[in-house]
Amino acid sequence: MSTPTLVAHREDAPRTVGAELADVLLVTVLAATLTGVLVAGPALRLGMFLLRVTSPGSVVGMQSDDDFTIGRFTLGGTYNLFLIGVATGYLSCMVWLLVEPWLIGARWFHLVTVTVTGALFVGPMLIHDDGIDFHVLTPQALAVAVFLAIPALVALAGPVTLAWVDRHRPRGHWRWVLPLLCFVPFPPALGIAAFVAVVLVAVVCLRLTVQPRLLESRVGATSVRALFMLFPVSGAIALAGDLAALAG
């Protein structure tokens, strides 16, 4: 049994489900880890530092809503930020592999779509009137911008890194060794990787069965795209409510 490829291959021949799934998982592990270490983790660390610098000194030592100590640079805190970054890298890559076939337009428009969706859907989960973060970190507009920019950046970095890793994937025994080495510094990432693996199994199965027929059907394709549109639209509504609450 063969399946359309989820990632690029030098050969044009169809792949078996097992071979395709193995390739996708290996590429995803590498891409997600790189996204977390090179993009998401540093972005979180830099965002926290920027807000500390622009906020009054009285915030130092306070516990943030996510249980980080504001203004304290510790190895453990930085590691946790990078671990969160790796987890978000997995989610970014997974979502891209799930939705990319349904996106319309050129690739650049696909990337814009997931970037904006990342900001609109994840941003409201981070921005809220409860707690202290958006009341003690100033200026408030900068805090909002930071927590919108980070998910947007990760949403963009996931597919870009996924494509780069796919073009430069390791060969021979390194194709197995490098992904395994990714879990050495981040053992908790095994949990999110297992979840992503289950989702990607479903993605491969869908590409073999339902998806081709849905893509060929105008009603089916439009229905799926409308379903996906609910995420940025609902996020935008939630974000508007959060901003109104903060302004009030």
From TrEMBL:
Q: Enumerate the UniProt keywords alphabetically.
A: Membrane, Transmembrane, Transmembrane helix
> What top-level branch of life does the organism fall under?
Bacteria
What's the protein name? Uncharacterized protein
Q: What residue ranges are annotated as transmembrane?
A: 21-44, 79-99, 108-128, 140-165, 177-204, 224-247
